[in-house]
Design brief:
homodimer, Alkaline Phosphatase, subunit A, 10-stranded mixed β-sheet, 3-stranded antiparallel β-sheet, 23 strands, 29% helix, signal (chains A, B), Alkaline_phosphatase (chains A, B)
Chain lengths: 467, 467
């Protein structure tokens, strides 16, 4: 009994660790690679919502079968006083934590809170050490998460040369990156920084940020990217046939890539509709709940490259003729964007895209030893899985969310109520909940059961021997 | 390098497993014990909220340092059609899952959905096999979570003989357990079932349910408990000095035990107060947020036994002169009750009580090999950790939760906003999110990275060799 229990455990650990040990002991072995998959806003509510739809309440998705599960403390500080913590992050500061190992303030891309110092990212370290590096996202490639791994700028909104000085977002939110303009010796806007970068693969959306005229130049940012050695692809076919000796910049939409799934019939999450009497007192009257919704394929998705296709292309390019290893960040961005805008079906479809990209990554890791696959989220999101039938139904009172509700019909024939109730504006808030982290078996023994978000950087650079 | 990496891992696994192996190979070894600690409603939001307050945003609580972290799929079915899943549980069906390994419907205590069959619990199995068993809670001992481990009844509200037939909760919710009355050969109400049980230790609140006259008897339920061999304690001193040769029933309040912490000055979570103009359009006008609140000791707590004290007494009694082992369930119940009623400070204090009980359990496990300590939640809760300063502040629009908000001043000098926005009634809803599960090192290799809630029962009975 003793041997049958103990041997397999030790053997499987030995199998996990042996290649790591060999890499130190003797050259040559397979190079070390890290694939970091980020589900933007993908906390446990979003995972449960997606699982219920995609696999059923008793089903499993591939995240559930990962060898290791951990939890991540998301850390944010106040920009005016970096000694003061804030309890809820945005994607800029949380991606910067993962990319650089530092804690910073909301809105910052690869720069320190208050002092605006440039921070060294894992992509910087990887390229310096001769490794390859790639960034894949379903958002604008200049968006907060992808850009934090490459760019250094004080505000996430400075995505192109026209957004650097005296700019306004939606005619309301002022943006100022004037200290970062090239005329003052700065690195320029995010798209300009990406165009000038030595990142081997950049795939996502955001053509709009590259078609602008570059600062101090008659050329567009896209033309500058070509001059710096990028092959430009704007469709899946071009992406796949891009010449191997060039860097690859794939831009497959003007802005964010469309979401795969949508509510049928252009529906939205809606507010429950209480009767007049209910306005007099919350225990009076009745309430009409929104009609249920079905999810369907989003027609606008069309021939947009799927996240798994982009991931596959990136892995092929990064691993080919490469004896030094690579770092790849893959983001399913619109789990967050759909949740902000109360699109439960959008969230589910984009989480599905993440699981497909994870399948590609795990298959790669099976064939290429020394590949650490990590999956995590940058921060929590507002969407909550709520009872469709109130726990208090038997009291016969009008029980309803004060926010927006999507009552989604799931394939297993049940109504799943998703609650959005953090504010009534154009977008819901993030939340400050700890987020999950998963690893393939290569992560076992290297990732504790809980870590801070900047410590993800430490795990990755340590694995790649970059420090 | 190889040996230094591999040896400690194999050694530590060997240390974990060796006693298990010996228990099979050769007698006598230390008996096997399971301590299951349940944080009612304790999902990752509640843990993060409590950690931020108790240890700071960068701090750790003992849950974070556990050897194993897993996640639990909470499963619920419709009572009329048990083939139909529901996505959100209550404490009755989720505790029944952990106690019996079966999936049931909301409100049921140890009985099957639709068919009302009695289900065999881990306490039943433990007692049959000669092990000891104990239940500790901060709720009424007749409440859903504790009673699911012992009692079998169709509705959780049937806590005492007067609640069995034609009863009403809050004069609105009808209750009917008429098929379970003793006159019809049933087991009687929950308090009567507990009074007649052979559970060695029962500690919590709920004297109100034992002071009622027992069905078909001139005696109270409490008198019946005495006759069945229970020593009755109603204060900490009595609890600690109870004779060792008796079963122990400790009832330290009429109802639920008071919560340790409360808002200072009898404050409540409040609704943001928008200006008149904001009623015309959500982008107009302004909003006044509720004042911040401080947490303080709850004066009503008085000399109520703390959860750690009850846990310690239970562990002493269950382990003394016991060569067969035991099962102990410890519940911090009012993480849920406080969250239902929007008492962020109450939630935090009761989660702190859970961590203290966990310290007691871990200390016991250090001294008593073969003790598996599991910590989990039964379901998610409404409370969300939200930004106190909206992500959209720079747009200068009135951003505010449509629900209730507690803006808690934390010891590290920051305002933590807790959002309650699932309904406007007297109590918030549960949520359907997966909940965390933690284990001490005894659980490593025995608990997968994800499991269903009924599988927790399987892990425990397998560990105790009860099946």
């Amino acid at each position: 009994m003793k041997s049958t229990i103990l041997k397999p455990l030790c053997l499987s650990l030995a199998m996990v660790s042996s290649s790591a040990v060999l890499a130190v002991d003797s050259e040559p072995t397979a190079p070390r690679n890290v694939i970091l998959i980020v589900g933007d806003g993908m906390d446990d509510h979003q995972i449960t919502i997606a699982r219920n739809y995609l696999a059923g309440s008793r089903g499993k998705i591939n995240l559930d079968e990962m060898a290791l599960r951990s939890s991540v403390q998301v850390l944010t500080v106040d920009d005016k006083d970096p000694s003061r913590p804030l309890y809820v992050a945005d994607s800029a500061n949380s991606a910067t934590s993962m990319a650089t190992g530092e804690i910073t303030s909301r809105g910052r891309i690869g720069t320190s809170a208050k002092y605006d110092q440039d921070l060294v990212s894992i992509v910087d370290l990887a390229k310096q050490a001769g490794l390859k590096a790639g960034i894949v996202t379903t958002a604008n490639i200049t968006d907060a998460t992808p850009s934090s791994f490459v760019a250094k700028i004080s505000q996430r909104e400075c995505e192109n040369p026209e957004m650097m000085v005296d700019a306004l977002i939606y005619k309301r939110k002022p943006v100022d990156c004037s200290q970062d303009v090239k005329a003052k010796g700065g690195p320029g806007s995010i798209s300009e920084q990406l165009a000038a970068s030595n990142v081997d693969v950049l795939l996502g959306g955001g053509m709009q940020h590259f078609s602008k005229q570059a600062e101090g130049s008659s050329k567009t940012v896209l033309e500058q990217a070509k001059e710096s050695g990028f092959y430009i692809a704007d469709n899946a076919s071009d992406m796949k046939s891009a010449p191997a000796d060039k860097k690859l910049l794939g831009l497959f939409a003007e802005g964010n890539l469309p979401e795969r799934m949508a509510y049928e019939g252009e529906r939205e999450a809606e507010q429950p509709d209480p009767s007049m009497l209910n306005y007099l007192h919350k225990y009076l009257g009745s309430v009409e709940m929104p009609d249920t919704v079905k999810c369907e394929s989003n027609a606008a998705f069309g021939d947009t490259p799927e996240l798994r296709e982009m991931t596959s292309v990136a892995l092929n390019r990064l691993s080919e003729k490469n004896d030094k290893g690579f770092f790849l960040m893959v983001e399913s961005a619109s789990i967050d964007k759909a949740s902000h805008q109360r699109r439960a079906c959008g969230q589910i479809g984009e989480l599905q895209q993440l699981t497909e990209a994870l399948d590609v990554a795990l298959e790669f890791a099976e064939k290429h030893e020394n590949t650490l696959v990590l999956v995590t989220a940058d921060h929590g999101q507002a969407a909550q899985l709520m009872p469709d039938t109130s726990l208090f139904k038997a009291f016969d009172l009008p029980a309803y969310s004060p926010g927006y509700v999507a009552r989604v019909e799931t394939p297993e024939g049940v109504i799943m109520a998703v609650n959005y109730a953090t504010n009534g504006l154009f977008a819901e808030e993030h939340t400050g909940v700890n987020v999950p982290l998963f690893a393939n078996k290569e992560g076992v023994g290297k990732v504790p059961t809980m870590l801070t978000q900047p410590e993800i950087f430490n795990v990755m650079v340590s694995y790649l021997n970059l420090k």
